[in-house]
Each structure stands twice: as structure tokens, then as C-alpha cells.
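Section 3.1: Structural characterization of target chains.
Under the original work plan, the team committed to producing a structural model for every single-chain target entering the pipeline before any wet-lab resources were allocated. The record below documents one such target. The sequence was received from the expression subgroup and is listed exactly as submitted; it comprises 223 residues.
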Amino acid sequence: MTAKNDYVPYNDGKFDDRVNALLNWMSAQKTLFPLEDLTRFTTAKNNWTTAYEPVKNGDATPQQFEKKKLAKAEMTNIYREFYHRFFQYNTAITDDVKRLLGFPIYDKKRTPVEPPTEIPVFEIDFSQKLVHLVFVGSADPEEKDEIRRRKPKGVTGFEVVRSVGVEPKADKDFEVVRTESKSPLRIEYDMTDKGKSVWYRVRWFNGKGDVGQWSEIKIAIVN
């Protein structure tokens, strides 16, 4: 359950209102947001709206309740990401607007956060059927083959990108999976992906939306 002081509403109806209000405001302020990020938010919001509709109408099946739960989790992750990347320390957006959108206001006299400098290390567990678990962390200075599952100081989370079935040759060949604040990241695949190779890489980002360098590329098979 969401904490009482959390800025993400636990109630589905209030959550739906908050997400719609944020998307409407961002759509009217498009120059403040990268198009690919705004598109990703819109897609997640549409998925949430579709999944929430039968629950809101009171005629949802158990499968539809589960679909709503998953859609809300995805929407919540992106909602939090957008707050940290685009709103929390963005002086171009006034405190009044942040309050109107339901975001908390923090002391602006905080110590400046530098862009991430550490390159993340990660491992992929692809032992499960149609599932990849991406473990992201920092290199252990004493055990080079071990990952310490912690974020560097000042880092909010990590972004994972991939290329499914085709070896990437350039940045444009990767697609964003999503961002996450905790490791591991669970990624599910369809039967149509079974046997395919997937190329992954990751990078850190901080609360201002600054991103670090990409990690090395790793490959996993969809079993």
C-alpha cells in the first residue's frame, strides 16, 4: 500500500484524475519535455485507462483486475520518473503549478546534484521461461565479478534499453524498456520472442533527469 504521505494516490479514482491532469498539463507545455518521453507517458496512460475502465464500471473479471494492477504499476513508475526528472528541481515550473499537479515542494537550497559519473554494472538472469531479470548496481572493488546492489550517491534510478532479435549497431537501434528505482527489473516476453537474443544496456539518472554513461552491452536469450 502507498504510504499516507506519498504523492501518488492509492485510490484508483484519484490516481486516474491525477494522471489525466498531469498529461493534460504536459500536452499544453510540450516544449518542456522530450517527445519520446511524452509519447511514452501517453502510451502508459492509455494502457491504464483501458485497463481501469471495466474496474471503474464494476463489471471486471479477475483477469481484468490483474491487468489493471499491472497497468497501474507501470503508470506509477513512469509518473514517479517524470516527477524526479522533470519537476522536482525544475525552476522553469513554478511551485504553484507543482502543487496544482499534486507534487510535493522541497527546499530549493539543497546541495547541487551532479550528473552520474559512475558506469553501472548489471547481470541478466534468463533462467525463467519468457522472463528476464535485470540486476543493476555498482562494481564491488574487492570482488570484481560481484555486483553491489546499490545506487551511487545522488542517483535516483536506472534506465534499461534493449534490442530484441537484431544486433544493435547504433543508439537508435535500442528501444527503452523503462526506468526503475530498485533492482532487479523484471521483463516479460511473449511466446513469439522465444529463442530470440536480446541485447541490453543500462545507465543511471539523477533527480534532475541528468543521465550518466551507458554500460557495456550484454546479451540474453528468451527461453
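The CA atoms of residues 157 and 181 lie 4 Å apart.
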